[in-house]
TrEMBL record:
Transmembrane segments: none annotated. The keyword Protease does not apply. This is Exodeoxyribonuclease III. Residues 7-251 form the Endonuclease/exonuclease/phosphatase domain.
Amino acid sequence: MTALTLATYNVNGIRARLPILLQWLEREQPDIVCLQELKAKSADFPQAELEAAGYGALWDGQPSWNGVAILARGDQPLEIRRGLPGLADDPQRRYLEAAVKGVVVASLYLPNGNPWPGPKFDYKLAWFERFIDHAQSLLESGHPVVLAGDYNVVPTDHDIYNPKSWRKDALLQPESRACFERLLRQGWLDALRACHPDEAIYTYWDYFRQRWQRNAGLRIDHLLLSPALQDSLQEAGVHRWVRGLEKTSDHAPTWIRFKAPA
C-alpha cells in the first residue's frame, strides 16, 4: 500500500523564504504540505513557482500577518472550508481545510496569545474553543483527518528545553495546555509524541540568544490524527536541516508518514 508524507511548516513569510521552501520541497518531496504565517496578500501567493515545483495549492492570505495554505504534490487540494465555523467575520486568516489524496487536512495557525494576560490571550482561548468544537465534528464524521499546524502550545514541560524563563508566556499557560489536552481526549493522536515518546524533540527555535545553536527549542507544531488514521501511522519527525539554513524560518518542517487510505 502506498505511503504518504504530510508535513506542516510555519514558513514565517512565504515570499522571503520562497527559495528555502522550494529547496525543501525538492529535497524531501512531501505529498501534502500545510503552511502557516504566509504574511502575504492572497494575490502575492507564489502559485506559479509552486506549480513549477509540482504542487497544486490552496491558500488564504493576509498582508503582513497570519495566512495559511495547503499544497499537494501532483494534485490539487479540494477546498472544504476557510475559517472556523462561527468566525466567518474574523479578519485573521488562520484556518484552511481541504480534501487531499483521500484525507481531510486542516492547516491551522493558532493565535500566539502574548502578552499574557490580556486581550490577545483571551482571543487565543476563544479561537481554541471554536477549534475544539469543530475538531469534535470532524472526529464524528469518521473520515481520516489530520489537524496540522502551529498550535502555539507547548503541551508539557517535556516539550521545551527549559520551562523556567517561559512561565509567563502564553504558550505554557495552564489554560492553553488544558485546551490541547481536551483535543487529545476527544480521540486525536499527537503523532510526533506517539512516535517519540521519550525524546526531547523540538520544532521551533527562537532567533535570539543562540537558541538554535544550543538546541534550546520548543515543540509547538503538531500533527493530530483521527482514529481512522492512527493505525496507519508509520513514522514522524522534524526536518531540522531546514532550520540550519541561512535566512530561514524559526520553525522546522514537522512531518508524518502513513499508509494512504484505501
